[in-house]
Amino acid sequence: MACSTGQETLGSDTFSSLDGNNDESTGEDGPGDGDPGDGDGDPGDGDGDPGDGDGDPSGDGDGDGDGDTGDGDGDGDEVCARYLYRHNLANDVWETQPLDLVWTGPNAPPCSVEPKAAAYLEVWDQLLVWGGNGMYYRRIGGAWQPPEPIADRWAVVANLEIDSVTHVPPINGGTSTTVTFVSLPNALLYEVFEDGATNYDQTVVMTDEPPPGPSQSSSVRRWSAVLADPELLGQADWWVSYAGFDDGKIYRFDGAFVWSNWPANQAPVLAGAPPSLDPSKLEAGYGDHGLNRVYLIGP
């Protein structure tokens, strides 16, 4: 899906109008003073973490930053019904772990809660998760922050069914990331700052794309995963989104405004997936451009 800044409808032609330079935002819709980071597109440049940028400073690969494999509550008797599927796009190697072995600690999203959407803001090493329990979770580096009601920072979408989320990192000297919520048939745009402050921008109506693009106005986008590197702006692959729709297809859209699609079981982003991964049951996803990985969450 493309992003818009001022159009009445949302289509791929509006992606190029996003300049990422909304410096007038001051975070009125959420806590924080709106004081952004440097927005230079250099992952890991402000978090003090010389690691690989996947949000896991411990290097144990599980993303929780603690180097352990506990379930987070200390008793070890829960059975997690959700999994994190990691796909290394460079070599089609997959890893699968119960979600409660990856997202751990008292502030992490509980495994019992459906993640309605997720986004990894690689430029700031922050993972954002919107839960089906009405709570919002944010991991900075390896540390989950105290959860809060979605309405505290994202009031406009708090009572909507969130289908998926995409984002565009700061570009052209901008200091905010544009986060786009999809709630059929609309897309709702927010500006987000490194300190967590948010500003609601606008709501636009999605339009259908000609084949091979999706019918955005009627087909539900179940999950999305974005891989982006602002320093590659101008190249087709500087921004790539994969999305699973309820029409049984997976769509790819890139920075050159080119759509591709495949039946879910033939999509390259799921090449070599383990038999336990059911594309129709995936709930959320996110990507890491630096590691060339896609992360998918589902039963």
From TrEMBL:
Residues 1-20 have a biased composition (Polar residues). It comes from the Bacteria. Residues 21-76 have a biased composition (Acidic residues). Residues 1-76 are annotated as: Disordered. This is Dipeptide-binding ABC transporter, periplasmic substrate-binding component. It comes from Enhygromyxa salina.
